[in-house]
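Q: Here's a chain of 853 amino acids. Please give me its 3D structure as tokens.
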Amino acid sequence: MPSALETLVKILKLEREKGCQNNAVVGGFAAYSVTWKLQAQAQARRPKHLMLAEELTDLLKDYEHIETQLERMEQIEYMLGRIMGRQPMPEKYQQQLADIKEGDLKKQEIADVPVLDEKPEPIETYGYDSFKPVAQPQNDLPEIPRLERPPRRKRPNWSLDESRERLEALHESTTAVNGVGNSKAADLAKMGLDTVNDMLHYLPRRYDDYTQLKYISQLEPDEVTTVIATVSKTEVRVGANRRRDFYMEVEDGSGTLNTLFFGQHFLIRQVRVGQQVVLSGKVTIWGNRLQMSSPEMERLDSENLHTIGIVPVYRLTEGVKARSFRRLMKKMIDQYADAIPDAVPETVLDRAELADIGWTMRNLHFPEGMDHLEHARKRYLFDQLITLQLGILGNRRDWQAVPADPMPVQDGWMDTFLASVFPYTLTGAQQRSLHSIQEDMAKDVPMNRLLQGDVGSGKTAVAIATLGIAVHNRKQAALMAPTSILAEQHYRNVTAAMEKIEGNFRPVVALLTGALTQSERNSVYRGLDDGSIDIVVGTHAIIQEGVRFNDLGVAIIDEQHRFGVEQRAMLRGKGSNPHLLVMTATPIPRTLALTLYADLDLSIIDEKPPGRQAIETRVMDPVARERVYNFIETHLDLGRQAFVVHPLVDASETVEARSAVEAFDELSQVFHRYRVCLLHGRMSPTEKDDIMNAFANHEYDIMVTTTVAEVGVDIPNANIILIEGANRFGLAQLHQLRGRVGRGEHKSFCLLMPDAYTPESEQRLKAMEDSDDGFVLAEMDWQLRGAGDLMGTRQSGGHILQLAEELSPELVALARQEARTIYEEDPYLEFDDHALLADKVQALMERDGGDMS
């Protein structure tokens, strides 16, 4: 008989000898049944062996619920009898066995369970450990090859009208799903699931892979894996900086695993000794013992073990149970997956080697294997990318179909302008960008260009030269910034530059923000309307209904991702299709930028002007906090200023991180001889502007803030930024925050203080120490964290991809290539094969306000 049964016989006899106290194995029979079942199924070679494993597993799980010692003894004798063949198979399992033809044991049923290593490991028992299970040799099991190319079913021969009707049916109420009544529909509505389509696209937040389970004794350092075990010990431990961590030991009958959850002391109230849990994470060695740091953890659902597969885990709301919701989603998928018309032409799927949409939706929710899930995610993301690309390309086509006024300038004029306005020579990257802008504006096709440059790369100089081209051609120009203080800074820079223009013509520059009085605003309105104002610099006030331009030739938007699509469209609408330049200080990997900004021509300033201060960046352990404070105080005494950044505004019950409000109270006492202010995103725009202005005027010495300070104004006197909880930020965001200092003549410092360490966060922080190149860091951020954060840089409140964290450069390039192939062949998507794709693009355009620029 298989070794799993031999092992169980010895354990059952030991339990009988120990008086049926359910202590023959660590955690009791219910906990042991988890790993035993996997071993027994892996060794099964006939259907009746699978049925025996199923029956014995059920009996082991039920054992702890038997109340009397006599009844437990009878249960043990029965199990021994079944193993030895002295007891007949119950009718329940006979019926299941009848459903499986003899000799038709599917390969999948065997191969979907983990294989034990050939080197046997001891089963840890109380007082009886003289036996070892005999492992099943791995090469005796059939191998399932990796799914290199997803299967494709024959596409149904639906007419276009029928396909559209089927797609429309997906927008019916969730009550259309079998088994969903009004009560369940109300529960689903609490989760934002009002239609069948909402359910289809409500993807699992993660997957528990029960096909890859391992015994604790089989774990190796540095592997990422999943284990099922029983909690044997819990406690709260005090970590660095008085941080309270949750410590837990778990056992599975083969060994013990330590787990540490940094800062999550509240778990002591939720986790109990004896609970069975599923842990997924990276295994490390700490003090010669196996450990997982802050792994994913969930209570064990016995139904998941029964299925032995990959189990989706969804985000749920109060009152909705995981098991019932999963069953409901399975019903929905079975009912609708094969009835979804595929909008992507078959020729595209063939070229890209992508799955059909029905197979994709099935495997997104209930994957047959992790390789199946990989293919499904690829297809799902591809659909979003190609739809986004086609929408953006169509937008560019429509935008450039209306001619703009050409604004040519001679190279000689540009050389003279630059020499008179700037006391320095532009870098090569600035000159290349300006040359492209100069060529664009000389045409009657409206410029639509993105100027992307790292912090301190000199985008403002290029913007001033662009404004100069407009006023040289006697056209009006507008520069819009996201905040009043940034607009005022631009106003000062532009005014100072324009006053240096040689010759008789001096352009008139005006500032337009919400801080102006009504009479001041009316004066600016009149000047823009009659043409007496040449350049206006301002905030959203520029796009107010009362603002009319006499002849707007170019519009520039700074920090474009801070504006919504409607706001940008309103600025463009202030003129007769003016040239448009948008700028961002957020470095984005080139491949991703070409996808997000397919409607824009891309210029990159990838070098910094000479003399720009290097910022010394250091990772500081929290135990060095007092030394850091002394360092800051030394510089404050020299008249400098400092930022202290925190990831949270207020304290959180679930996230153990210092908050800005807490830190403000603390630092006001630590630095009691200095002036400390607080800035965060919950303040009103006026409050934020007032605080920033006061800090810029050195009315405060220290600013305690959140990431609201990520994009701000030049404060040359600030030369230190301390970023608390630095491990919680991505590289791109850390680099943006670092750019708040190093803008003056003083040596500047960026101090990164993590509140926890993981291998991935250590890698990020080390990269910050080693590099100040935003583009290098952006590429690394994409590789480490995915493109989720970067997707938000296109626009405020706009299109964000689902599964953006799974984006790869290869997939982005593939979608871009296929979109351009379709666009060049059929720019208006008028072919029959493109009709459903055109519907998707139109729906996206309507959702994003009709404009994706």
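Q: Can you summarize the key feature?
A: Residues 174 and 185 are 6 Å apart (CA to CA).
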